[in-house]
Amino acid sequence: xxxxxxxxxxxxxxxxxxxxxxxxxxxxxxxxxxxxxxxxxxxxxxxxxxxxxxxxxxxxxxxxxxxxxxxxxxxxxxxxxxxxxxxxxxxxxxxxxxxxxxxxxxxxxxxxxxxxxxxxxxxxxxxxxxxxxxxxxxxxxxxxxxxxxxxxxxxxxxxxxxxxxxxxxxxxxxxxxxxxxxxxxxxxxxxxxxxxxxxxxxxxxxxxxxxxxxxxxxxxxxxxxxxxxxxxxxxxxxxxxxxxxxxxxxxxxxxxxxxxxxxxxxxxxxxxxxxxxxxxxxxxxxxxxxxxxxxxxxxxxxxxxxxxxxxxxxxxxxxxxxxxxxxxxxxxxxxxxxxxxxxxxxxxxxxxxxxxxxxxxxxxxxxxxxxxxxxxxxxxxxxxxxxxxxxxxxxxxxxxxxxxxxxxxxxxxxxxxxxxxxxxxxxxxxxxxxxxxxxxxxxxxxxxxxxxxxxxxxxxxxxxxxxxxxxxxxxxx
Length: 477
What we know:
By secondary structure, this protein is of the alpha/beta class. The chain contains 20 helices and 18 strands.
């Protein structure tokens, strides 16, 4: 975000508009409608600007621009066709620490005038930062068709009773539930039917009803592998409902940013080398503390909570302590990383089954994993997906070779899957560890082993593809 969104209170405050043409006229009209004290300066003015001045809506100053015109101004807008004049306005405003907008010149502007969807007192502003004004206008046009005109009266009614709502609904969660009812219930319906008196009566009746304290709950949300576009609609709704968001290390920052702005965010991610059991107990205690305080807690996990995410343990804990919970599935890394690498996990000609495993458990030296299951999964026509495997690649390779995988079995190692820095390393199984080391593959990364991995070079469509025939070739590159 290269611009900070800001709604300015300009009522009674001076704004200078330099220019007397149609563009300057539009700016002056918008500013006057917002209650600003508009001073327009130019050598000549449109007829409408002259009429506005005659009605006392704006003031005019005739002549060439002078820096003294900025005296007492809070904002300035340069809307002339003379670039030298526009630059002079911008420079003079900068000297006085006055925000200035130069129409159609983002470089000279210290603020941008957005496209506006007006549902007063609800106002929606859209800006492209001056990069693509037409795009901002197109977005505004779409929003105009989506947002009912009764939103304005609904916002005004909510503002009128805001103090009463705060008194009657002292907790943040109960107020949010009230506003949800206001937006979706009989008040909004009455306003759409132009029955303003009925809408207000319904609102007052609802306020008079005693509401029991809302119990807390936990929503276990799978946040997917990192691309915010893969978040489900239900997960997005949960993030916007949350009072508290407990997130782990693999929850993408862009996904976390979609949560409610005023939600309390608590990092509970496990880090390598720490006591994971103690960390898990702390997560349980934190969920319980906030849920018992009446909060809606979102436990946000990378991928899916029920695929190597200890989601089952957390539900068992919540059930044992009488805490209500919901589960929102997420797209697990094996599905997403394979898709973004162009690798079908199953294929009629190459793979008829897929196995998901963690490399930590699969590479145990004591062979404690089920040998029969390993042998079945290691045959031809099988795809194996290994989570959390970067540090275990040498041992994992040896185990796979011992269990029957051929040295030339294709593999694909997907680093930062679905994210902007995704890399896919492809090669032969016997060179797995050396290639990963040569290309400095880092966690998070998912390993895919099987014949389907050979399809990545042909079907790859996202991020960077690294093809390596041998370790020597990789080192030479």
